[in-house]
Amino acid sequence: MGFSTVQCNEFVEVLASKAPVPGGGGASALVGAVGTALGNMVGSLTVGKKKYADVEEEMWELKGKADALQKELLTLIERDAEVFEPLSKAYGMPRATEEEKAEKARVMEIVLKDACSVPMEIMEKCCEALDLIVEFAAKGSALAISDAGVGAAFCKAALQGASLNVYINTKSMANREYAEELNQKADAMFEKYTKLADEVFEGVLGRLK
After folding, report:
1. pTM of the shown model
2. How far apart are CA 25 and CA 174, in angstroms?
3. pLDDT tens, 52-71?
4. What are the domain boundaries of the chain?
5. How far is CA 94 from the centre of its chain?
6. CA 192 → CA 121, 126, 127, 160, distances in Å?
7. What CA–CA distance (Å, rounded) separates 22 from 80?
8. How far, in Å, CA of 25 to CA of 81, rounded?
9. What is the DSSP letter of 209?
10. CB 62: neighbour CB atoms within 10 A?
11. Are 126 and 160 in contact (CB under 8 A)?
12. Architecture of the domain made up of 8-82+117-208
């Protein structure tokens, strides 16, 4: 099943079920795509307006980047499901003998790395999206400013959600040096971009109230 192409009600129903995928990672990717699209909408409502002629070229450039990010985040919904399935199977591997324990540990290290790679990428894409939304909020049509604020809030939520999917997997890694390296990368994105998202949101809120 292509989780990025099913109807919204179907996605939500499967998400609520006991099916292993989609889960928090895929949902985060979807929310990130929606947040990016909201920023992109600000650009769409800005281009072609005489009042914003001086930022027209920049808006088109930002929109092009947002278009690409939306597609990449939707693709990551599918990728998250693909990497979680082997991890789910690995957790169920037998470990009655020393040989079985060793084989399970070997497989777990491989699939945990793969399972971390997708939420890390979701985080990275959300950070890129927030950088765009900063510009959409600052220079885009004032009539659509609320959408920039919502986009920032969604991308923040997606960033936070993806981070939890990184941390739950690094926690299980035997290679602690590699796990800490990933944690530090995730920490840095989390700290910088949740603050940036809050700044955008508060700025929009201040303009509306």
Report:
1. 0.94
2. 22
3. 999 999 999 999 999 999 99
4. 8-82+117-208
5. 33
6. 16, 12, 9, 12
7. 8
8. 8
9. -
10. 25
11. no
12. Up-down Bundle (1.20)
